[in-house]
Amino acid sequence: MKIKPYIHNESSLAYSVGETLDRFIKKKQDDFTYASGELSQLLRDIALATKIVNRETNRAGLANIGGAFGQTNVQGEEQQKLDVIANIRFTRALTKGGEVCAVVSEEDDEVIDLQNSSGKYVVAIDPLDGSSNIDVNISIGTIFSIYRRVTPIGSPIQLEDIMQPGNKQVAAGYVLYGSSTMLVYTTGCGVNGFTYEQSLGEFFLSHPDMKAPNDGKVFSINEGGYNQFDQGLKNYLKVCKEREYSARYIGSLVADFHRNLLKGGIYIYPSNPKNPNGKLRLLYEANALAFIAEQAGASATDGENRILDIQPTSLHQRTPLFIGSSVMVKEAMSYLAKEKV
Which residues form the Fructose-1-6-bisphosphatase class 1 C-terminal domain (predicted)? Predict the structure, then answer.
């Protein structure tokens, strides 16, 4: 019997589909600070829930799961049906996976204790970001942060397990449900993006080692509140317009952040008299994106402090957010500082 060795070739008849998320996670497991396998499985659990939520968002207009649910969340925002569905899907996947002891979700008033005292991780998540865009078929997303619990394994979950600053994250990521569905994540060793191939049911590495441009010519802010902005911010926006920068604002945090991460730009959600502490949530929105931004070479601040250094004091704590290309963020901060002298 003759044995023929396999010779790899790039035949156009059978092109390579690339590296799957599962294979990439397994290959990169040794990069994790705690390379015991649980974090790898946790990322897979999130990816599975993402696939299910992707299916639900794609069929929302046909399955009567668009529109308002009829309740408001702790933020006072009207919940959409897909908000509730996404929350259930992610919580269920994290419960069955067994690696997580507690979940903090935008859609729940209190910490969700998964009754798994052996779980090593806490997940903070915005299951479906951009609710106002659901019914008009505009990009929405998911944002998640992963923390390693600080209390002993086997003991009940405690407040100190939850109230950790962003610099304690072991992983963070987001999912963009757009023209294609992408999952982008970091474990503190760079940022990588994966695009979902629906016919195969797999995420494939499409954006390896993502790096944000150091500078950009795009600013993303809701200028409807311009009259309430601080003078320093008004001055910065005036300069952006004088330079003929492009104004791009989708209204979905994930979509706006993702575009600027790839193309270069700054996303701004400032404080105002109505929201003196800002509006975006620290634990499950700002921290995750700030971790990703810094790993990609970008910056994130609340206008004065590095986002990742802020010590949370409440579950749904809000914060202003200036995030994006480092040169643009630094310049914006200089204009804010001038008016505070």
Answer: 213-336
